[in-house]
Design goal:
Layout (H helix, E strand, L loop, with lengths): L1 E10 L5 E12 L2 E8 L6 H4 L2 E8 L2 E8 L2
Antiparallel strand pairs: 1-2, 2-3, 4-5
Length: about 70
């Protein structure tokens, strides 16, 4: 089982300060299931979306891409 936890702080697409917590779990790097919690009203849809993630090695560590399944 793989698990990675991230806390991002910045601004949402409307310029409002926010935090985004991501917990990414999976059995393989190619198919993980992220859970997203945010205090941004504009990004709240991410908490309810059906998401998958793909983790790939990169020059600087790993690259995480999150996809909406809908």
């Amino acid at each position: 089982m793989l698990c990675a936890i991230y806390l991002l702080e910045g601004k949402d697409f409307n310029g409002n300060k926010c935090s985004v917590f991501i917990e990414n779990n999976g059995e393989a790097l190619e198919k993980c299931t992220p859970i997203i919690v945010t205090n941004s009203a504009d990004l709240q849809f991410l908490s309810e979306a059906e998401l998958t993630a793909k983790v790939t090695p990169s020059e600087y560590g790993v690259e995480v891409k999150i996809y909406n399944n809908k």
